[in-house]
């Protein structure tokens, strides 16, 4: 890192000179030295941090997930805000079937992380965990969020389609639900008639019976009907 120190002075007239005492010069040099030391220390810490993460990555590639996780945890003990170590630790925990602990770390990244790339990967991984736990509806939301942040994520798109298909198989289609509702309504007992409604129904039946009797009597006097000729 390069530091540019700009000293602005106001010169009221030509020939005006500014003098610094030895004490002032010494104080300025000490301040500059402190800044340079701070920058150097930051660079050393950054290199140390990345070195430990790289060591954890080497263990991860060789499928030594417990040792990889231990290295990532070392970084987080000294640098809790290191999102790379947190993300990698979550992956190592997934490989050890510690999905609950991994989910907590990924949730923290989803809330605090501002980089779209890392957030997208965190959302995708949480979707994978939820899919494995058969929490399809929740996993679908995480895949959707991953695609919002990174529309070119083919894995997220494929997993989203798989989760949607599996959810469709799990839940009955709307037509079957409607058929089931119709059958249930048929099986429901009909409401009882009031006394007034019952009397009206009885009168209608009596009227129909009377009409039938009159028709029968008329047919008996005129004879039976004959077939029509050609």
Ends: how far apart? 117 Å
CATH homologous superfamily name of the domain at 114-172?
Tetratricopeptide repeat domain
Give me the Rg, rounded.
42 Å
Q: Helix count, per DSSP?
A: 9
> In the CATH scheme, what's the topology name of the domain at 114-172?
Serine Threonine Protein Phosphatase 5, Tetratricopeptide repeat
Order of helices and strands: HHHHHHHHH
**Residue share in helices?**
over 70%
Poorly predicted tracts of residues:
1-18, 38-43, 222-230
Q: Helices and strands: which structural class?
A: mainly alpha
Give an overview in words.
By secondary structure, the protein is mostly helical. Among the domains are: about 40-100, Alpha Horseshoe (Serine Threonine Protein Phosphatase 5, Tetratricopeptide repeat), CATH 1.25.40; about 115-170, Tetratricopeptide repeat domain (Serine Threonine Protein Phosphatase 5, Tetratricopeptide repeat). About 75% of the residues lie in helices and about 0% in strands. It contains nine helices and no strands. It is rod-shaped and about 140 Å long. The model is unreliable at about 1-20, about 40-45 and about 220-230 (pLDDT under 50).
List the helices and strands and how they pair.
Layout: H1 22-61, H2 65-78, H3 83-95, H4 99-112, H5 116-132, H6 136-149, H7 154-170, H8 174-187, H9 195-222
Helix pairs in contact: 1-2, 2-3, 3-4, 3-5, 4-5, 5-6, 6-7
Structure described in brief:
By secondary structure, the protein is mostly helical. Helices cover 74% and strands 0% of the residues.
Main attributes?
mainly alpha; Serine Threonine Protein Phosphatase 5, Tetratricopeptide repeat; 0% strand; rod-shaped
């Amino acid at each position: 890192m390069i530091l540019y120190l700009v000293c602005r002075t106001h010169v009221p007239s030509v020939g005006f000179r500014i003098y610094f005492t030895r004490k002032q010069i010494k104080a300025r040099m000490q301040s500059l030295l402190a800044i340079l030391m701070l920058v150097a220390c930051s660079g050393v810490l950054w290199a140390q941090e990345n070195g430990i993460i790289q060591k954890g990555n080497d263990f991860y590639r060789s499928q030594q997930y417990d040792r990889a996780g231990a290295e990532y945890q070392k970084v987080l003990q000294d640098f809790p805000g290191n999102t790379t170590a947190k993300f990698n630790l979550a992956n190592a925990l997934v490989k050890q079937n510690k999905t609950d602990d991994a989910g907590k770390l990924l949730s923290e990244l989803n809330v605090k992380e501002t980089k779209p790339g890392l957030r997208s990967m965190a959302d995708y991984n949480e979707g994978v965990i939820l899919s494995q736990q058969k929490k399809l509806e929740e996993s679908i939301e995480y895949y959707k969020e991953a695609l919002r942040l990174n529309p070119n994520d083919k894995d997220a798109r494929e997993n989203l389609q798989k989760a949607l298909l599996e959810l469709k198989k799990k839940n009955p289609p709307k037509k079957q639900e409607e058929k089931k509702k119709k059958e249930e309504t048929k099986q429901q007992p009909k409401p009882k008639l009031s006394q007034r409604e019952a009397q009206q129904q009885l009168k209608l039946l009596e009227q129909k019976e009377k009409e039938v009797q009159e028709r029968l009597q008329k047919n008996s006097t005129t004879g039976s009907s004959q077939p029509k000729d050609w």
